[in-house]
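Pasting two entries for a bug report.
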Amino acid sequence: MSRPARGVTVPARVSRTVLLVPALAFGPRLTHHRGGDKERETMAAAVTMTRAGHLEAGDLRAALAAGWADFRAQPLFGLFFAAVYVVAGVLIARGVMARGGLTWLLVAAAGFPLIAPFTAVGLYEVSRRREAGLPLRWPAILGAVRGRGDDQLILMGAFLFVLFGFWVVLARGVLAIFLADAGMAGLGSDAGAFLSSGPGLAMLVVGSAIGGLMAFAVFAITVISLPMLVDREVDVITAIITSVQTVRANPGVMLGWAALIALLLFAAMLPMFLGLLVVLPVLGHATWHLYRRAVPARGA
């Protein structure tokens, strides 16, 4: 159940001019008014109307319980989106192994979860429709990737894929540096020996630190923004500002949520990735309910 937000309003002191430039590029909804001052007023309203609510540990438990309830009520949608993610990962792994071997597989596998939030968009729509009492039909659920019809979600998805590409290049560079330090040209049958050596362990520490920072950055900008883009007619910049503001206002709770997601995903991958068929949809639905607790429905 949603409840009034108790928290910090997204700062209105952010320069209207600074926000207007990305809005003109990324927010078609905000450019309907061509009257100069009125256009700026519309932009300012979009920023100030959104609140980043105060969250507590109990909200995480409630969100997980609601996510589990959504999955039990509509399991086919969750199983479908989880299966798409798992199959895509397997296909990417096979393609990488066929072309680049174990080196590229490790890099791609470490970065693939960065695009997981975008695959949960359909799950957010299922939860939104259940909450609003709307019919659950496949065309509407699959069409959720279009967001509110203004391409903002597609832009966010493209941004996540660019981040994934950046991670691949960065991680490959880190791996190459430590391989060179160990006098190796690449990973092959000696992969186990390298990873247990001094340079290999150092690479794991450095790579994990960089990957963790990137993963948390993606978490911070998507945990609230993606559900918001499904739920409201806002531009991607406003959604990201609200998401980051929510994380900043609730650092302990949101760090705990990020750690719980990472732990559950890791555990779900152990039994031949089969656990992802349940864990992914439950986390997707739960993220929607956590968003709703941070940013209640209008009029709530």
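Entry 2 (this is the one that rendered wrong in the viewer):
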Amino acid sequence: MAVVKQFDRLAGSWLLIAVVMVAVPGVPRGAEAKTRWSFFLQHGRAFKPLQADPRVARFQLGFLYGNKGMYQDIIAGGDLAFVSARFSKRKRLTITARGVFTSRFNVFSKSFDLMNTDFIGGLATGLQWGTISTELLIYHQSSHLGDEILDRGDRKRIDFGYEAVRLLVDWYWKFLRLYGGLKVTMHAYPASLTGRVIVQAGVETRFSPHDVPLFAAVDTQVRVDRPRLRDVVVKAGVGLGHVNPKHRLQYVFMEFFDGLSPMGQFYDEAEIYGMVGVSYLLQ
């Protein structure tokens, strides 16, 4: 609980920084400070989505093969960015509602069995100041075992769900994006997960040799109470359509995962897999 209280102070400090940035727009001396407010914006979030986070809100279809077998993963989600405040050309704030569901299917079963579905919903506040941006996300995740698995009695359903707070900060330098932060589980089932702290960090890069849009990303998540169990995602792909990085939203990709399963009903099981697929990421 001491860690949770410390994170509460950290979140409070973030909010204080946000208030200061709102109060001090940073315009040149003698210029009039004009904050432009917009609602249900179309130009994206202040804190851009992470490429390699396995639970980022996006539309994705992937086929994976690993130590558990061959499966199909489907992800559908995005952000409703309903409030934006622009204080200057390089400084803005966005508030978004985020929703995503992820499902895994057994490719070789007779009825294409649904293995697991996770639902995630929350509220995110993003703040961008030049090459640095940050996001505070408060969200709930629940998990449900597939009906076919329950009907056959292959495994018992786990009462799995939690509420968490995540704070991330990123920094852009030329073609690199570095990010890091913490996630604290405030309340969870099973109760043993309450108070768990996860350190998340990663790096992304985008480049376009001969006008071919490419990207590569690595995401790592480490549980403070179980530091030897790390979730590592390595992802790379080719963008489709416009070569401008700001518009490179659709892509085909390859992904490697090594860690505890991102699927809630299998949260304590080690998993290694490779995946290929297509994805559409809403900025």
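Dev reply: Rendering is fixed now. As a check, the viewer should reflect this: The mean pLDDT is 84.
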